[in-house]
Amino acid sequence: MANETLESGAETIAMRVVGALRDEIVSMALKPGDVISESDIAARYGVSRQPVREAFIRLAQQGLLLIRPKRATVVKKISPTGVRQSRFIRESIEVEIIRRVAGQPGSDAAQVLGDLIAEQEQASSANDSRRFHALDELFHRTLARLAGVEYAWQLIDDHKIQLDRVRYLTLGVSSSQRAIAEHKQIAEAVAKADPELAEIAMRAHLARAETLLTQTIEDFPDFFE
Amino acid sequence: MANETLESGAETIAMRVVGALRDEIVSMALKPGDVISESDIAARYGVSRQPVREAFIRLAQQGLLLIRPKRATVVKKISPTGVRQSRFIRESIEVEIIRRVAGQPGSDAAQVLGDLIAEQEQASSANDSRRFHALDELFHRTLARLAGVEYAWQLIDDHKIQLDRVRYLTLGVSSSQRAIAEHKQIAEAVAKADPELAEIAMRAHLARAETLLTQTIEDFPDFFE
DNA sequence: GCTACAATTCTTGTATGGAAGATCTGCGGT
DNA sequence: ACCGCAGATCTTCCATACAAGAATTGTAGC
């Protein structure tokens, strides 16, 4: 969902707890199925129950926690169909984006994308997988910006968090060379102002997430519904 | 965002307040820019501040409220670019959906859609605009179901709430005849198993929201950012 | 050994009091 | 008349106590 719904500036305790818990969940320090309680987390962070409770509400709305009233709160297991449909949503939107970007020739889009890919190659050579992943995300967000729908990327980003949990389970195994090659194909199609080709390249690029998912389900069945 | 994140069954006060406030906001009883406070709402509903506060948090994450820490909470004004990009998102997804549905011939999709359109014609004849709107929504959700991505519709639904506020401002003016005709074109393309034609019909159908938006901005400029 | 049931102990939900900060008000100075 | 500053009065935020439901445990009875 589109958020940062409260004005920036102040830094409340609740917001800190939200960020900390989200990191723990995405990094799998808190595993799917783990039971947590307001008291536990409050004690662990040295704060009162109240801000923790509010953090739970926010994270539950983001699909990371499941609050069972009067019972307990658990780290939500990953829903395979949920991830697949998130991918469907992402593909739908990104295809539309890439067609737009490739359809407006004469822009500096190809140049910008080329620079990003060069940076990714550096990160890949340096084995800096963290930076590589950040650049990968930036590549896609940049496409959204070039298409004039940056807001749409926020949506994708919110839903991508579930896939990020999956990705974290297979860290380092990702073949960055292949991702770079696919990015190059996309950028090339943009340079040629060929929407059809760009669409094909984008679909192929995003299709890899499916194999990642099925593989991970086999390796960590307990983390999935 | 995909929610109902807390198990159904119990009916807490906070949930009741969420529903009541959401209705008030969508029905424009609470107008964009209106300032509300936890105490106000708590007194108005005869409950404590705590559940109201939690309701505020939920509604803020849904983009209906803006919490300004230590200052106030206001009913969020409608963002024209936000609505436009929501429309972009919706169009991207629904185009993909309709192509899928039209691409799998031999199903009973056309039959199901035809029945829905018939019901809409009844509602239109009876001037039951409320039922008509519900059936319109059902038409699109049914398409998502037929494509096997009902979850995706939930996403659209969550974002559609902003457009619903706009729609409420122009209630009754909607030309239902035209909407029915467009639905018929879509259903016909599905019956012919022609994805290209279905896509064109769907895009034309969704494009009408744009004129609705620009018109409403002119009529109620104070409600927009 | 097994079952029924009650008490204990968890959990989240609600109420209320006060703290911290931001805005508004009014008074005094120039 | 205008500006500055201090106090009153809002707001949301946080802490704490208690309430209510659900799960667990232990125990009595068979």
From TrEMBL, chains A, B:
<dbReference type="InterPro" id="IPR036388">
    <property type="entry name" value="WH-like_DNA-bd_sf"/>
</dbReference>
<dbReference type="GO" id="GO:0003677">
    <property type="term" value="F:DNA binding"/>
</dbReference>
<feature type="domain" description="HTH gntR-type">
    <location>
        <begin position="11"/>
        <end position="78"/>
    </location>
</feature>
<keyword id="KW-0805">Transcription regulation</keyword>
<keyword id="KW-0804">Transcription</keyword>
<dbReference type="Pfam" id="PF00392">
    <property type="entry name" value="GntR"/>
</dbReference>
<dbReference type="InterPro" id="IPR000524">
    <property type="entry name" value="Tscrpt_reg_HTH_GntR"/>
</dbReference>
<protein>
    <submittedName>
        <fullName>DNA-binding transcriptional regulator, GntR family</fullName>
    </submittedName>
</protein>
<keyword id="KW-0238">DNA-binding</keyword>
<dbReference type="GO" id="GO:0003700">
    <property type="term" value="F:DNA-binding transcription factor activity"/>
</dbReference>
<dbReference type="InterPro" id="IPR011711">
    <property type="entry name" value="GntR_C"/>
</dbReference>
<dbReference type="Pfam" id="PF07729">
    <property type="entry name" value="FCD"/>
</dbReference>
<dbReference type="InterPro" id="IPR008920">
    <property type="entry name" value="TF_FadR/GntR_C"/>
</dbReference>
<dbReference type="InterPro" id="IPR036390">
    <property type="entry name" value="WH_DNA-bd_sf"/>
</dbReference>
